[in-house]
Amino acid sequence: MSGGEDCECRPLGFLIGLPFALICILLSILGAIVWVIGTVISCICPCCFCLPPLVNFALALIKAPFRVIKWFASKFPC
């Protein structure tokens, strides 16, 4: 690889971000539970206006481990 190319493989950032991603996995499990409950309640009672933002927040929690790993990997050079 020449010096000007962008490197896709950043193992150091991945390894340092791994413990944080594991914590985020626990949060994503919580987010999945909230998402399922919120979706069921919003289907039963569509007049609940507070549930869609809660479901969107739960989806953000589910995606958190991937965002954490990408963020840590982007902060370290190859």
What report would you give on this structure?
The protein has 78 residues and is mostly helical. The protein is built from 2 helices and no strands. The protein is elongated and about 50 Å long. The protein has one domain. The model has no long low-confidence stretch (mean pLDDT 76). The longest helix has 34 residues, at 11-44. It comes from Ceratopteris richardii. This is Transmembrane protein. InterPro entries: TAXIMIN_1/2.
SSE layout and pairing:
Layout: H1 11-44, H2 51-75
Helix pairs in contact: 1-2
Q: Characteristics of this structure?
A:
78 residues, mainly alpha, elongated, transmembrane, membrane
In short:
InterPro entries: TAXIMIN_1/2. 76% of the residues lie in helices and 0% in strands.
> Strand-and-helix sequence, N→C?
HH
Count every beta strand, where a strand is a DSSP E run of 2 or more residues: 0
Helix content: over 70%
Computed Rg: 18 Å
The helix-and-strand class reads: mainly alpha
> Strand fraction band?
under 5%
Distance between the termini: 11 Å
Number of helices: 2
Task: Report the mean per-residue pLDDT as an integer.
Answer: 76
What is the total number of structural domains? 1
What about the largest sheet?
none
- Give the uncertain stretches in residue-range form: none
Shape: elongated
